Structure formats: C-alpha cells, structure tokens
Amino acid sequence: MSSLRFKVVEEASNRKAVPVEIPAERPETYYGEHVFNRAKMYEYLPLDTYRALVDAIDNKKPLPLAIADSVAAGMKQWAIDNGARHYTHWFQPLTETTAEKHDAFVEHNGKGGIVEEFSGKLLVQQEPDASSFPNGGIRNTFEARGYSAWDISSPAFIMENTLCIPTIFISYTGESLDYKTPLLRALAAVDKAGTAVSRYFDKDVKHVQSNLGWEQEYFLVDEALYDARPDLVMTGRTLMGHESAKNQQLDDHYFGAIPSRVQAFMLDLEIEAHKLGIPLKTRHNEVAPNQFEFAPIYEETNLANDHNMLIMSVMGEVARRHNFRVLLHEKPFAGINGSGKHNNWSLSTDTGTLLFAPGKTPTDNLQFITFVANVMAAVHRHNALLKASIMSATNTHRLGANEAPPAIISIFTGSQLAEILSKIEKSDNDELVAIGGKEQLSLDLPQIPQLMIDNTDRNRTSPFAFTGNRFEFRAVGSSANCASAMIALNAAVAEQLTEFKNKVDARLEAGENLTHALLAEIRSLLQQSSPIHFDGNGYSDEWKVEAARRGLDCETNPVLMFDAYLRPSSVEMFTKTGVMTPVELEARNEVKWEMYTKKIQIEARVLGDLAINHILPVATRYMSILLDNMVKIRNLFPGKKGEELSEMDADTVETIMNHCRFIKTEVARMVQARKEANRITNEREKAMAYSLNVAPCLETIRHHIDKLELMVDNEMWPLPKYRELLFIR
Ligand code: ADP
Ligand code: MG
Question: Are 248 and 337 in contact (CB under 8 A)?
C-alpha cells in the first residue's frame, strides 16, 4: 500500500470525532453574542442616538448622518471590548461569495504612537475598487470606483476578531454591483405594493415584510480525501469517478443516524451560528450518502439572506476544525442526488398576519386568496425569469437533469387549496351575499380549516410549492446567493400586486363594492394563471409536452435561459418596481454569461490535466504490466497454449487502449473547442460556444475514464474513488 491514495484513505478512515467545546450556558445566554444587536446598541450608544437609530431601522429610513459618529463610536467600543482589531465593509459582489477588505482601527496619535479610531464616515461609506469585481462592463463605461454603504437593517457582527458591517456595493454612478442593493429595492417594492393591498383588509397595516427560511443542503468529505482530488479542490465537484456499488439505493442515509464525526461538526456549527445570531434549528441527513441539511427559523428576507451568506463561509471554517471539507456545489457526485437550497418564502404584515396562511374569518380568507392568486399570477407571468434567477453553470446539473426540480417552473398547491381556487375561479359574483350588514361570502370559502396547513401531500417534484403558510421555491441551487431568486420573486409579486390594486381601485371608483371587486379580479387572475398550476409529477415526460402546450418556458440551456432577464416584460417589471435599470440588467447578464464560461473553462482545464497527466499514465503503466505478463506467459507456454492463456490480457489491453485513444482525441477536441470559443468576444455567444462545444466533452471524457477505473488495478488508481469519498466512518 504505497500509493498516495491508500495513505489518504487510511488517514480518513482512522479519524475520530473532534471534541466540541460546548458552552456551559444554554443557547439563550450566548445567542447573538457576536452581534451588535439592539441590546448592545442600548448598552453602548447614548440614549438619543439609540432611539434615532432604532427609529430609522424600524421605519425603513436612512441613517441620520448627524448620529453616524456617535453610532460608530459605540460600535467601535463594543467591537474592541470583544477583541476586534479590524473592521470591514462586508458585501456581496456578483461572485456568489462575500467580500471584505480589512482595516485596523489604528491611526497616528500625532505623538509617535497610535490610537484606535472609527468615525461615522468610515462606518457609513467606503470606496473599494469596483474594477476587480464582476461588473458586466459598468466600470468600462463609467468609473472604476465603487461605493459600499452600510445597510442599517442588518446588524454588524464580529467574526475572527473583525467588525463586519453589512453594506451594499454600488458603482460611482449608482448602479448596483451586488446582490444586496436590488434585494433591498425589491423588498421595498413588495412592502409598498403589499401594504397597499393589505389595507383593503386591515387599515392598520403599515408594512408588509418578506420572509425567508432557507434549507441548506451540503456534502461533507474528509479533508485528506478532498486534498487528493484536484477536481474537488478546483471546481467543487468530481469531474470523474465511477458510481459506487452502494449509493442511495437503500434509502438508509435520509434521516438516518448522524455519524458522530458529523454530529460534532454540526454542534460546533450551531454554537457558532447562534453566537452570530443565526437561528439554526433543524439538522438531518439528506438522501445521498454524506449529504446533510440544516435550516434556521425563518427571518426577514434581507437578514435571512445575509445569514445564509455568512453561514456558508462559517461552515467552511468549522468543517476544517473537524477535518472535513464542505461541498456546496449543486452536483458534486454524478449518479446521486445533488444539493439545493429550498427558499421558504412568505409575506407578513407588521400587524402580525401571515398573508399566505388561511385565517379564521371570511375576511382573513379573502385576504389569503388575494395574495395567493397574485403570487400565482406573478409566477405565471415571469416563470422564465424565475427560472433564470436560479440558473447557473453549477445548478444546470440539477435542473432538467432528471432530478428535483425540472427545468420548468410550475406551482403545486395541494388538493385542498386547488379545490378552493377552482371554486372561486368558476363561481360568479351572485354567490356573494350580505350578512349582518357586512359583505360576506356564501362560498364554502370562508371556513378553510386551519389545519389545511398540510404537510401530507407534498410534491417533491414541484419547483414552487405551497406548503401551508408559505411558498417553497425549491429550484434554488445550494451554492447560490438566495438574493437572486428573492429579487426576481419579490419584484414580480410587487409588480403584480400594484397592478391588482389599480384594477380593484378602478372597480371601486365605478361603484362596485370591495368584495365584488376583489373577487372579480381574483377570478380573472386565477383564470389567466391557470397554466402555472400543476400538481402532477414534474419529472414525467408528459409534463414536458404539456408544459410546452401551456406556454410555460421549457428552455433547458442555461445560457439561453438568462435571456429571460432581458425580455421586454422583465425589463419593464424591474424598471417599474425600481429594482433594476436596463443598464444594470444588461451588465448583470454579461456577468452571468462570463461566469458560466469561466466555470466550464476551469472544469475543462482541470479535466484535461487529470486525464492526460494522471489517468493516461496510470492506464499505460497497467497496460504495460499486462503486456509484460503476456510475453512471460508465451515464453513459458510456447505456441497455441501460450496465446490462449494470454488472450484475456490481450482483450483487456485492447479495451484500455481504445479508452485511452478516445480520451486523448477527445481532450484534444475539447482544447480546440475552447480555443475557438475563447476567440469570441461577445459574452453571450462565447458562453453559448462553451455550453454547446466544451461542456459536452466533459461528459464523454469522464465516461471513458470511469470505464478505465473499473479495469485498471485498484492499487494503481491515483484518485480516491466514490466508495471512499462518500462514506464517512
Ligand atoms: P421542511 O419539512 O420543508 O424541511 P421545515 O419545517 O424544516 O420544512 O421548514 C423549513 C423552513 O421553512 C424553516 O427555515 C422554517 O423556519 C421556514 N418557514 C416556516 N414557516 C415559514 C413562513 N411562513 N415563511 C417563511 N419561511 C417559513
Ligand atoms: Mg422544505
């Protein structure tokens, strides 16, 4: 057992669970310890500063500049008291990760020494160089400078002795260069539009809030094995590897007992998360071996998204303490389930109503139906855009690849809601009667049992499902920034609600009563959007045919899917809601295409290297052993007998040789295809060339390598195999 592979496998399988330092106190004591939350603000800020800041946060107003210095001073003191030496503006560029540039608090004191300082100016705004972040050409047209500005709705926190200040990131000319800016705009738009509609039902509503509860799926791999797989290190997924004999066939991993090494990691992560104010709650094994999931209690969407971005980096750090690596890639292993990030999404009012939850009174239920119908209409109108919002080079492996979910957006409602919706759709206004001087419905609608919150008939094949009091957008990729999906969804719903409000108001002005007006518009929405409603099996081939007939977007090429962002209906929607300008949309698409190209380009380079420098030499060496053996046999058993005895080896050599030849030609073809694609300057066309001419080579080359893996001496095979990577002991 001399090979590197055996060494790392041995190391991995001998690992024991790393002990976790469990705080003596209960979570409530250390929850939010690293966050400058309201309790800390109260403690560290002068009372009038505290009041002004909280008022700005609660009423969604900008930070009053007069208090910036005072806030900064208090925040700095808290940070220093908690061991921080640096501060950073923490933002979310279009790279799908977070960015931070650290500065120490130190300044000259004029007497040869230093003091630690932090002014309101530094808290509120900074100027990182925008040109080093993806910007889709915005910097070429304008200036390289970018601004980061504090988002007061998301509290500052300390990580690794650094005070992190969540910020937006925009160009010199005001275009967003990040996810947070358009997300905040979309949330403001849905707040405004949602509030206007909720006020039909409750005059006291001042704000509508969007909520997000993400479920994060991920794989863990032992660090030693990970390090021995250049493809995992460089691309986050295995570019080769024959299926393991045992995978997920027995369904013995899902909800199974969590291995002790993994459980220690999870506990450690939960403690870290709670200190950072991230309310992690659920953890379990997922379907595929080595696949796991955790989920927090849901929060306001912007905060929830910051928390998801934060936890994705924290989990990497914590995993290393346990000699693991986290794989957030959507499809790290061929042949077994990939990872997603279900986005549980809802709207709620500041008066405490969940707008997608059936209520106790007829009014509540009319409100419930109003919001559900508007979501259905928005998702129907923008189904192509929503699909584009979750698409990426990495998520392509899940969507449409016969795995949850299909590359067609539809809504699953479950039978109870479907029945109610269809009743409304088919009814007419005559069924409305006045009861006790108040407008009431005589439909069966009013008393929707509260227990309709129904977890029984879930449809796992649906990309967008109603789940009792929320919608679950399941197509989001595990490595994605949820903001992308949340921007598109909240903006689309904001547009729809505004349109709905205008139509209902027009009816009211024409003398109709409110219930009539609402129901008439709801009915029309349900009729128009009926093609989006699908409760059947989303994996079936019939659905693909049926969806196309219904006019739903069935595009499966990721590069072309992104076109949906530039459709007139999308541009109009984003412009009207104030979420993104045409310039921003175009720039972002450039970035999406560029990212797609780069991801495939890196994969192609890594696979080419592995094929030529790792796999072919080993296959050749093995062939040479077989050939040697044949010569020896023929020498020992001359004539026909020798030939017969060595025949098996001859067959093997021939098959190996054929695979090797194929790999060599195909790698050369892939390199050529890359060269040709690289000459294209238009980002969309270049991405198209990569998707049509380069990406398919990855599959064909791997197919032959995987065949070789089955033939070549196990001891010689250079890379850890699936059966070794996938089963943590
Ligand atoms: P599942 O059975 O789909 O795993 P869970 O009960 O674990 O569902 O919930 C998944 C996520 O949905 C959690 O983050 C939870 O807080 C969140 N969630 C629950 N209700 C809502 C809601 N009304 N709005 C948004 N998210 C919600
Ligand atoms: Mg779920």
Answer: yes
Q: What distance in angstroms lies between residue 466's CA and the mean position of ligand 2's atoms?
A: 10
Looking at residue 512, what is its pLDDT?
A: 94
pLDDT at 393 over 90: yes
Q: What is the pLDDT at residue 405?
A: 62
SS3 readout for 609-624: HHHHHHHHHHHHHHHH
Q: Give the number of other Cβ atoms within 10 Å of residue 153's Cβ.
A: 17
Q: Provide the strand spans (E) within 162-276.
A: 162-171, 208-222
Q: Are 464 and 409 in contact (CB under 8 A)?
A: yes
Q: Are strands 162-171 and 86-91 parallel, antiparallel or unpaired?
A: parallel
Distance of CA 373 to the CA centre of its chain: 26
- pLDDT tens, 95-121? 878 988 888 999 999 999 999 999 999
Please measure the distance between the N-terminal and C-terminal CA atoms of the chain and give it in whole angstroms.
20
344 CA to centre of ligand 1 in angstroms:
6
Amino acid at 75: M
CA-atom Rg of the chain in angstroms = 29
pLDDT grade for 655, boundaries at 50, 70 and 90: very high
Binding site membership of 148 for ligand 1 (Cβ less than 6 Å): no
- 248 three-class SS: coil
Q: Which residues pair with 101 in a beta bridge?
A: 89
Q: What is the pLDDT of residues 592-621, one digit of tens each?
A: 999 999 999 999 999 999 999 999 999 999
Is there a contact between 341 and 216 (Cβ–Cβ < 8 Å)? Answer: yes
* Rounded CA separation 155/102 (Å): 18
The closest-lying atom of ligand 1 relative to the alpha carbon of residue 282 is: 7
Count of beta carbons in the 10 Å neighbourhood of residue 259: 17
**156 near 164, Cβ under 8 Å?**
yes
H/E element holding 582?
Answer: helix 582-609
* 97 phi/psi in degrees, rounded to 5: -120, -170
- pTM for the model: 0.94
Helices (H), 296-356: 301-321
Q: Which of 215, 453, 455, 456 to mutate to test the pocket of ligand 1 (most atoms within 8 A of CB)?
A: 215
Tally of CB atoms within 10 A around 127: 11
Residues 330/397, Cβ–Cβ less than 8 Å: yes
Query: Does a cis peptide bond (omega within 30 degrees of 0) precede residue 405?
Result: yes
* Residues contacting residue 24 through CB under 8 Å, at least 6 positions apart: none
Among 210, 255, 342, 344, which is best to mutate for testing ligand 1, by the most ligand atoms less than 8 A from CB?
344
Q: 317 C-alpha vs ligand 1 centroid, how far in Å?
A: 26
> Does the C-beta of 282 come closer than 6 Å to ligand 1?
yes
Residues 6+ positions from 579 with CB-CB distance below 8 Å: 182, 185, 186, 189, 487, 491, 494
Please, are residues 241 and 722 in contact by the beta-carbon 8 Å criterion?
Answer: yes
How far apart are alpha carbons 703 and 232 in whole angstroms? 18
CB count within 10 Å of CB 71 equals: 28
| Distance (Å, whole) CA 584 – CA 487 | 13
- Closest to 366 in 3D by CA, of 480, 263, 442, 285: 442
The answer for residues whose C-beta is within 8 angstroms of residue 197's C-beta and 6 or more apart is: 370, 371, 374, 497, 500, 501
